[in-house]
Design brief:
Structural class of chain A: alpha/beta
Number of helices of chain A: 11
Strand order of the largest sheet of chain A: 7-8-9-10-11-12-13-14
Number of domains of chain A: 2
CATH superfamily of the largest domain in chain A: Aldolase class I
Oligomer: homotetramer
Largest interface: A-B, 52 and 52 residues
Order of helices and strands of chain A: EHEEHEEEEHEHEHEHEHEHEHHEH
Chain lengths: 342, 342, 342, 342
């Protein structure tokens, strides 16, 4: 940690900062020169100590800025876990040599609908089925999902089609129930900083698909992963799904593929991409899916609906089974071109 | 609702759109001319029908865009509730002629700390005491709040100092408990779209201070209010607290005062402003507080700590009691200048 | 064009809007129903009439919103030019079956430096050499380029290495001079709305590489292209180079690959991508370059410097010749995987 | 300047960084401890040396981040110019005790229009008249201004009404001409980084009203001012006019009033605010104008048109003369409430 003083800071103010650091048993180094004084903390600070120390130093008179030298999260960082993690879910290996594809409808609407989806995505080559039973919707007047009944349909459809399942959980108190029905928990973008939910998901030991919030920096995203990991779980898959768009005419969100190589570099966790929410229009989804894999993503999560124009939600961004099958046929060549097994 | 077709859309595609609208008992009007065809829905659509209809129409071939003519929320909109609402909490009237100020520390840290805060803000003229017992923190290693013990301290301090209380709730299942201790529930920016929490807060009947998410459009913000209102509550106060900053060097967030006159225009709900989180540095807080009142805000929520450099969180944005008292002395002149009783 | 009235708009206000439209010889259609009245303009409006009509209608009492049905630019739009354009520059065909790569240093620093760059990128397979002689720099204390001397070096180096050349022009009055030295003009992101410069570039007839401004919507970007095209030129290549980043810790900009399939869909102009400015760190450039091609880009522009740590500008985002050669070897497999000849 | 090394950086990489610094005659200090090594430059670096040194250090292997301790601009910074600057223009004193108001139409459309505007704003109490002769417009089909004829009308109207004048210049080669007609040059938001224009304006010695670009950080804004100041001019007034909006439904831009107290703190230059472009709708302009003054702005620039619904540009954000006169009557009370003479 480095503390930068204002140009006009007095020697007394510098002394107070140094005193605050050394009173915690840490070594402080004065770094003179230039127009300002900087003070370095020349000892390792425990992660749990950092936020308080930073907050305290920032509030001292004369302090201009407090900068971190090392990243403030630990379990999610590659600095302390050099090898890439592999998260296995129902036979699929996120972070392994292959590209794992999750596909299915936005919401479970009926048993025939989810079963048809399961069979279609399975036969096209997807590894896991997605489908929402608890739907977080911007409007209270939108379809909110079939809840428990939807979970039962997911489980039955997955079993009948022979495919693992992923569903979103939006309340910490539902985690245990949801774990009983599906193979992987999804924490949605709107809940990326729902801390009780992150903690409950981490405690469950179930694999967690954690979506980046649309306004989250990568550090905030990895802090959210750290919440899950800090409960003893190691089974977290990161998912980029688009940030707030500059251009709202043509995009629902701005799928931020920059996050893929950066997250792969700074974290050991697997990274997948959701092009459906990311760009928000079905006809642009295949291009962004292929781009995600070329950027180094470990997998995809794609919305597929047997009949998008009848969908109760997100119809305009859902691929038809035929369009999805076409994408799945084009994917292996791109995957191989970037050195990944199909 | 108006459906815009692509320039190259066929007559058959237009017919399908018209058929989809009329099959719901709604009247469709073709609007020819220019390079495109547009189709208007010439009947009132119930709010609960809109999202599905919009989603279905968007997914039809040939459709370029679906535009809303009326706002999709109802209870939060001034269109259907012309008179400004007044929300009363412990003797303070948000949306009334005066300017209501909530003040206190980010977090309850100890009984002496919260009592000193309560007495200081009370004597400076604040109407309500803020203080967090459940703290949503970016890092799992940051102080997470005193939880139930913190609630008890809030209640006792408020009673001893003779001031009403506000605290944040972050889990739907805690709403009932929190209502037993404080006069007003706060739903924080990170939870603006935590729908189970919004619903639980609405059901409680307790007044709700709803903060705008840092990436939320004003429509998304009012939809969140609509979730609370749809449960039968009418006691919602909106709070602007800053959106994602373009400039992260000097601002924690970009306090968006534009939201104040716009929200007052399109909604009947009271609107207050949080300059402390909004700009994030104590020395800029008074300027933004005065600007908020000049922009027409119905009140403020300000972080005040007896000793900011000892605060366990947000010390750098907390005013000292002296700085807060100074602000409170300058506030009435600005309030009066914009036609508001002190 | 469609005009949406406020819910409380009076019949007289509607009449005024209708009158304003019909006074221009255009047909107005009232679209009743729902809570609002909408008024459609049921005649084709000439592009040069639209901005004034829109501005006038927006300012009338009772008007809530004015929406466009057709896009307001014409020459850049695919609606009026269905076939994809091919722009030929010094033997390279942007928008043709192949993937065109422009490469070279940020700035021309010396003749040996630009010649070594030209030879290195040529031998690795690049089609055109980039290099800045006029450098727009955030700080007046940064290296501003070698100006005319730099142009001469570019021309000589291109001739000696047998490769076409691209350089940025930042002043309308320099366009003629720059055209005498290089094969393609670049208009940089900061100048995307420097209208005198766009007009001068259009008048020159020289091919123009137009970079998207970091805050520009796609419509604003295509309007900038329209300025060039409106001068009679048809040789414009669009370049996505990153928008303002949400996360400034890890990215210089957010390379917005979503723009690629969308621009290819709504415009007939070729689209290339600049991953170097887009993500801003050399070690992430290859991943984003491959992703751009997988997303459907017609080409790339990549910063390459013989010795990045000695570069006078942008060293941290420049590839070494060896890293660039490696990227060029990996590119054809991705290009072929998305159906593009190498 | 402080260089942070990656956790895994080798001792040799640290040595190379230290060597690079000391080879320039600067002193380097190693700052060990924690997980990383940091290296401080313990000598003052001349502003003109910083960008190159930073670029070179960033490109060295093992370097994670380069942080500035002091601000990289000098002439615009309060660190080196503690007293607030006052810029006098035609009798008005920006940065003095009063609040200076510039008002007038977006564009000069005819002599009667600009004269009526001049008389209206003068009689309501404005100090300077604005009006555009060269209009930078997003669309090439929009009204581009009356050019030289417009300048002549401005000069004549200002003289006849007895009020100083401000107009925008968009081409470096027009600066001299424009100076002959008006009292103050405006450099618009789209040209904030048009460096040839900034330099030409600086050389002219004429007062410059410099608008913040909609995507500019405050450091980028002050760098643009530094370009003007570096030419020997000291007469720059900063103008906040809105940044890219998160919410494009209700705002044209997000007027960023946070910039006001921050710019007043870090720079000695006067700061004014443009609420008209900032929020973009006439009915919200007065609230934002009052808020700007409460935040500490030294003045305002407001669009006023004798007949907004007939305006050739920006009609929807222009105040009528009556609405402007009303605002001017409310302004002094707010100005006085924040300690400013009317």
């Amino acid at each position: 940690m480095i503390v930068l003083m204002h140009a006009e800071a007095s020697d007394e103010q510098v002394d107070v900062v140094v005193g605050r650091i050394t009173s915690r048993g840490l070594e402080a180094l004065r770094l003179p020169g230039g127009d300002h004084v900087a003070i370095g903390v020349a000892s390792a600070i425990r992660p749990e100590e950092r936020p308080e120390l930073e907050s305290a130093l920032r509030a001292l008179p004369g302090v201009a800025h407090v900068a971190h030298v090392s990243r403030p999260y630990k379990l999610a960082s590659r600095e302390f876990h050099a090898a890439s993690s592999v998260v296995e879910v129902a036979g699929a290996a996120f972070g392994g040599p292959g590209c794992v594809v999750i596909a299915g409808p936005c919401a479970v609407e009926s048993y025939p609908q989810i079963l048809a989806s399961a069979q279609a995505v399975r036969s096209a080559g997807a590894s896991l089925l997605r489908g929402g039973a608890f739907k977080p919707r911007t409007s209270p007047y939108s379809f909110q999902g079939l809840q428990l009944e939807g979970l039962e349909m997911m489980k039955a459809a997955g079993a009948e089609a022979g495919i693992g399942t992923v569903t979103e959980v939006i309340d910490a108190h539902d985690v245990e129930t949801v774990c009983a029905y599906v193979d992987m928990l999804q924490i949605g973008a709107r809940n990326m900083q729902n801390f009780p939910l992150l903690i409950a998901a981490g405690r469950s030991g179930h694999p967690v698909l954690l979506k980046r919030g649309p306004g989250a920096t990568l550090d905030e995203f990895l802090f959210a992963a750290e919440y899950v990991l800090s409960q003893g779980s190691s089974r977290v898959v990161l998912c980029e799904r688009g940030v707030h768009p500059l251009d709202r005419t043509y995009m629902r969100n701005t799928l931020d593929l920059n996050a893929v190589p950066i997250l792969k570099d700074i974290s050991h966790l697997p990274v997948i991409v959701d092009p459906s929410h990311g760009i928000g229009q079905a006809r642009y989804v295949p291009a962004m899916a292929l781009a995600a894999v070329a950027a180094g993503a470990d997998g995809l999560i794609v919305e597929v609906h047997p009949n998008p124009s009848e969908a109760l939600s997100d119809g305009s961004q859902s691929l038809t089974p035929a369009a999805f099958a076409d994408l799945m046929q084009r994917l292996p060549a791109v995957a191989q071109a970037v050195g990944r097994g199909a």
